[in-house]
Structures are given as C-alpha cells and as structure tokens.
Amino acid sequence: MGAKLSHLPPESRVSLVDLGFMDARFKLTEVAAFLDRVQRHGQDDDFRVERLKGALALLQSGQSGRARAVLEHFSDPTTEPIERAPIQGALGAWPGPPAARQG
Amino acid sequence: MLRYIEPHAHMVSRTTDDYEKLALAGCAAVCEPAFWAGFDRSSAQGFYDYFRQITEYEPRRAARFGIRHYCWLCINPKEAEDPGLARDVIALIPEFLQRNNVLGIGEIGLNKNSRNELRILEEHIQLAVEHDQLILVHTPHLEDKMKGTRLILDALKNHSSIDPGRVIIDHVEEHTIRMVMDEGFWAGMTLYPESKCSPHRAIDMLEVHGCERIWMNSACDWGVSDPLAVPRTMLEMRRRGYDDGWIRKVTLENPARFMGQSPRFKLDGLD
Ligand SMILES: [Zn+2]
C-alpha cells in the first residue's frame, strides 16, 4: 500500500515565502493591533495579554521549535489532576496556580 | 480526484448538504467518534438514542452519497465529571459494540484534567481491553492539552494490555506530537479554525515528525468548523510540492491502516 516515503520534504522546490509571507504579515499586524486595542481600553493587565506578550519574545529565538515553545508558554505546566473541573471550556492561557489568581 | 478518509467528524451536527460536499471532494469514508453535543445530556437515555443515531441513522444518510460511515462509542470527557451518569452510559456500550459500523471506544480522554475525568478514562480503557477494541483519544483544549496528554499517556501505559499501535491520540499539536509518537501511539492532527492546527502547521508537522502513524481530520462538529478541512489541506500539500503518493499516504492509506485493524472497517477499491 503506497510508496515508501521518508519524512523529508519533497524534492520540488516551492517558494514557501511566496506561499506564506502575506499571511504571516497579516497575522502579525493583527497581533500588533490587538495589543494597541487592549492597551487603549485599559485591558492590557489581563493575564492572557501578559502571556501573549511573553510569547512574542520567543519568536526572536534563532532556533527552530518556535511554535512548540509558544504553545508550551500558554500551557498549564503542573502534572497532578485537579480535584474538580470548574468550567468545561478553556481560556487559551494558563492563569497560574489558584493562589496566584487572587491578587 | 484523490479519494480520502475523514477520520474524525461529528456528522450528527452537520447538514445533509455537508455529506454531499464531502462526496464531491472525494471522501470515501467518514468516522464519527461519540462526543459532546454542545450541551449536557440529562440522562443515560439521551446517550442511548445518540448511539442509535450514529449506528443506525448516520450510516444511512452517508450511504445516499456513496460514503461509508463508521463510529466510535463512549461518554466524552466533558460529561465525565459526573461519575454516576458516566458509568450508566458505559454500561450501555457493550450492546452496541456488535453493530457493524462500530470501530472501537472513543473519543475518550480528558477535558479539564480532573480526577473524575481520569477515573472515567481508566474505566473506558478497561472496557476497550475487555472487548478487544481500538481506542480513539481526545486530548484537552488549549492550555490544558500538554498536561492532559501526559496524563492520558500515563493512564494508557499503566495498563499492561494496551498496544500503542491500536490507540490513536487525536488533536496533537507541536508541543504534544513528539511525546505521543515516541511512545508508539498513532497521532491525529485536527484542522480546526482558531484552535488546534491549520493546514500549513499540519504539513509542517509531517515534515518534521514523519508521516508514519499519523492522520489528519476536520473534527467538524456543532461549532465553527470546516467539513472540507482535509481536502483543503490536500490542496495546500499540492501547492507545497507534495505529489499524490504523499497525499494519498496521509489522507487515505494511514487512516485505512489504523482503522483496518478493526475487522468491521472495509473500503472498496483500496489495495
Ligand atoms: Zn471530536
């Protein structure tokens, strides 16, 4: 069933910059405008905004693995199950341990 | 047109028009894990009817468009915070396991990584082992995914009878794919707007982590989602220079190989 395939990218050279640059430029501008907007409305102290700003620093790394680093940055780093599920949904960023959330 | 398999779709939430679109895009089979309906059911009876819907009605609706319909059974982790209800639902499952479109137990897993969710996950794993069923696992959303994936892998590895080659861990992203593959499990990438992963990121993960033991799906459901996410990604693969052999491998042969471990999974013309 099927050809034997390695996990290397295909031989034919396609300009990935041509394919992806405009999209990346658009999304980065969206992030910039989002940060301006929440600041203008005094909402930039939200923990999610703080996390987002922290993630931006990770993009400056010259190493590959940036997507993984960004996702880890937003993740709950703890390892024990919680006692009860407080909500069904997720917020997109870990708010920190319960004690840290009160202040 | 290449044929492909949609290995994860919640067709109960989709219109008949969507079946037609899938057929036009080349979809040969659609596989429906049991999941949350967008609201909490009030009793086990609600699940009984849901299991009838995905074992009786949806296969007929799909067949009108020449698409095979398969399903997976469980109580999903979002409704597993109430162990009493969850156990009532688990007790209903064995009578449905003999139906001819049922591939296994799924999508089980975790949602908020709570103790009750974990207990019910372990009971589902035990059910799958006792009935020699394949397993399809849902991993949590967003900030809960990394921790939840670790807890799920531990729960599976703690069970001595689990063969990782018969378990797929779905909704992997860049921070969870490696831990899943390193343990020998299958990995599913979900192409979903806003969360999970985009076509380009899915193709990136294939490039970095290889195209063995991996599939991609739309997980289209009651939320904003795209039943054509897989053919759209096939198009992106083509634009990035992948030939039909690669595309067919990931979107047809891989899901057929995993699900073909169930004697119920049959696809005409797949050699
Ligand atoms: Zn699902």
What is this entry, summarized?
The complex is a heterodimer of chains A (103) and B (271). Chain A has 103 residues and is mainly α.
Descriptive labels:
heterodimer; A: 103 residues; mainly alpha; 0% strand; extended; B: 271 residues; alpha/beta; TIM Barrel; eight-stranded parallel beta sheet; 9 helices; 8 strands; binds zinc ion
Q: Assembly type of the shown chains?
A: heterodimer
Bound molecules: zinc ion
- Summed up, the helix count of chain A is 3
- Termini separation of chain A: 59 Å
> Which bin fits the share of residues in helices of chain B?
40-55%
For the biggest β-sheet of chain B, the strand order reads 1-2-3-4-5-6-7-8
Strand % of chain B is 15-25%
General description of the model:
The complex is a heterodimer of chains A (103) and B (271). Chain A is 46% helix and 0% strand. Chain A is extended, with a radius of gyration of 19 Å. In chain A, helix 2 runs antiparallel to helix 3. Chain A has helices at 16-40, 47-59, 66-74. Chain B has a single domain, classed as TIM Barrel. Chain B is 43% helix and 15% strand. Chain B contains nine helices and eight strands. In chain B, helix 7 (199-209) crosses helix 8. In chain B, 54% of the residues are buried. The interface between A and B is large, with 41 and 48 residues. The structure holds zinc ion. Zinc ion binds next to loops of chain B.
Write the layout of secondary structure elements.
The complex is a heterodimer of chains A (103) and B (271).
Chain A: H1 16-40, H2 47-59, H3 66-74
Chain B: E1 4-6, H1 16-24, E2 27-33, H2 44-63, E3 68-73, H3 83-96, E4 102-109, H4 115-130, E5 134-138, H5 145-158, E6 167-170, H6 177-182, E7 186-190, H7 199-209, E8 214-217, H8 229-239, H9 244-259
Parallel strand pairs in B: 1-2, 2-3, 3-4, 4-5, 5-6, 6-7, 7-8
The complex binds zinc ion (ZN).
